[in-house]
Design goal:
6 helices; about 55% helix; two-stranded parallel ribbon; elongated; mainly alpha; disordered C terminus
């Protein structure tokens, strides 16, 4: 599965898909009006078997913020280099190297590292704020459409409820299940097969 390098850090999905006909959770079953399905939300971004529209939205964000992310990574690399140089300079000076010169070089690199640390923190915060805002605008409508489509899918296939199995596993609530409850592939195929005009567009907030 391809991992979108920047979005993987700056954009975290928070999906809780539940479509229910009543307030009570019915007993787990795969047949009849009370059957329950599970989806693995993480599979939606799979490069080959995921939701095409969702992958496209993530890829567009990744491309949009790549220059800023590359700049931040360059500064991080420089900071790591400085840390190594500072560590070496803090060792006893070699024979023949004036201590005063060694101390001056050390002070200069420490100051550069301190300034770089502040700059990196500022860039990280700025990048996160901008990416969060753009995520709502670019991925938000797709997210809303996926949620609506899960409701349509549940009604069409006769599911009383479809749960986000990935989130349940992360929370330690779902510790084991039969694969026949997993409708991830079926839903992805259902969503990808829909005509483009059926998608609903959520207004960015």
């Amino acid at each position: 599965m391809k991992r979108f390098t920047f979005i993987a850090v700056c954009f975290a999905l928070s999906m809780a898909f539940a479509v229910s006909a009543s307030a009570q959770v019915p007993a787990a079953t795969t047949t009849g009006p009370g059957k329950i399905g599970l989806v693995n939300v993480n599979a939606f971004s799979d490069e080959k078997a995921g939701i095409a529209k969702f992958r496209t939205a993530l890829a567009s964000l990744d491309a949009e913020f790549k220059p800023a992310a590359d700049q931040l990574n360059t500064k991080r690399a420089r900071y790591q280099t400085l840390a190594g140089e500072i560590q070496k300079l803090q060792q006893p000076a070699p024979t023949g190297v004036p201590a005063a010169n060694n101390q001056a070089t050390l002070s200069a690199k420490v100051e550069e590292a301190q300034n770089l640390e502040i700059e990196i923190k500022r860039l990280q915060e700025d990048l996160k704020n901008k990416s969060d805002r753009r995520s709502q605008q670019v991925v938000g409508p797709v997210y809303a459409d996926i949620v609506k489509s899960l409701s349509d899918f549940a009604k069409q296939k006769g599911y009383a409820m479809i749960l986000d199995g990935a989130k349940l596993e992360e929370a330690g609530i779902l510790i084991g299940f039969d694969d026949k409850y997993d409708v991830t592939k079926e839903f992805i195929a259902f969503y990808n097969a829909r005509p483009a005009g059926t998608a609903t567009t959520a207004t960015p907030k």
